Amino acid sequence: MKTLKFRLGSLEANCYFLIEGSDCIIVDPADDAPFILEELSRRRLKLKALLATHGHFDHIMAVGEIQTSLEVPFYINEEDQFLVDRVGETAKHFLGYEPVVMKPSKTEYLKSGKMDIGDFTFDVIRSPGHSPGGASFYFKTDSVVFTGDTLFKGAIGRFDFSYCNKGDLSKSLTKLFELPDLTIVYPGHEEETSIQEEKKNSGVFFDFLK
């Protein structure tokens, strides 16, 4: 599987194209639909699905606009539906202006465990804490995991929003640290890391969450 990363939007969220042959799924489509649609066309890729690690606007705002051009499902955990419902309001709060936002037209809810989309096979790992419906996507064959805003290089997701939960975030990190050490971590922002590297920081992370 080939992985392409693009930093999109004012908050520079990581948008990932996962490619097998000419098929593609996107993890966290961020908020730049024109760029994504152009890249798909330029690379002659067939988009099969959009996956969200969580419902914050900087990770999903492009979904609705992409779906007006391509009939693809959007997958997110049901517990983050409230964030999807108010994506425009949240974007206005953080960006300081009111963007034009199209709501997703076709949403399907993620379930924990194995998931198959075409030739893509991966595990959905429930990762709440930063948001109630946080999810990580683990591709065992490729030894990679997409963690959204749960785990970063040398950092963890913020937990100061009213709907965050420190206890859940701690449990989510524990699950991620059970993955093989050499698993590459693709986070929702900034650079890649590995489970092995972030285990070295685990004591600090867990102390911070007490």
Give the helix/strand layout.
Layout: E1 2-8, E2 13-20, E3 23-27, H1 33-42, E4 46-51, H2 57-60, H3 63-69, E5 74-76, H4 81-85, H5 87-95, E6 107-109, E7 113-117, E8 120-126, E9 135-139, E10 144-148, E11 151-152, E12 155-156, H6 166-176, E13 184-187, E14 193-194, H7 195-199, H8 202-208
Parallel strand pairs: 3-4, 4-5, 5-6, 10-13
Antiparallel strand pairs: 1-2, 2-3, 7-8, 8-9, 9-10, 11-12, 13-14
Helix pairs in contact: 1-3
Would you write up a description of this structure?
With 210 residues, the protein is of the alpha/beta class. The chain has one domain: Metallo-beta-lactamase, Chain A (4-Layer Sandwich), CATH 3.60.15.10. Strands 1-2-3-4-5-6 form a six-stranded mixed sheet, with no helix packed on it. A hairpin with an 8-residue loop joins strand 8 and strand 9. Helix 1 packs across helix 3. The longest helix has 11 residues. The chain is globular, with a radius of gyration of 16 Å. It starts with a strand and ends with a helix.
The CATH class, by name, is Alpha Beta
Fill in the CATH topology: Metallo-beta-lactamase, Chain A
* Cα shape: globular
CATH H level, superfamily name: Ribonuclease Z/Hydroxyacylglutathione hydrolase-like
Number of domains: 1
Strand content: 25-35%
* Main β-sheet, spatial strand arrangement: 1-2-3-4-5-6
Report the order of strands and helices: EEEHEHHEHHEEEEEEEHEEHH
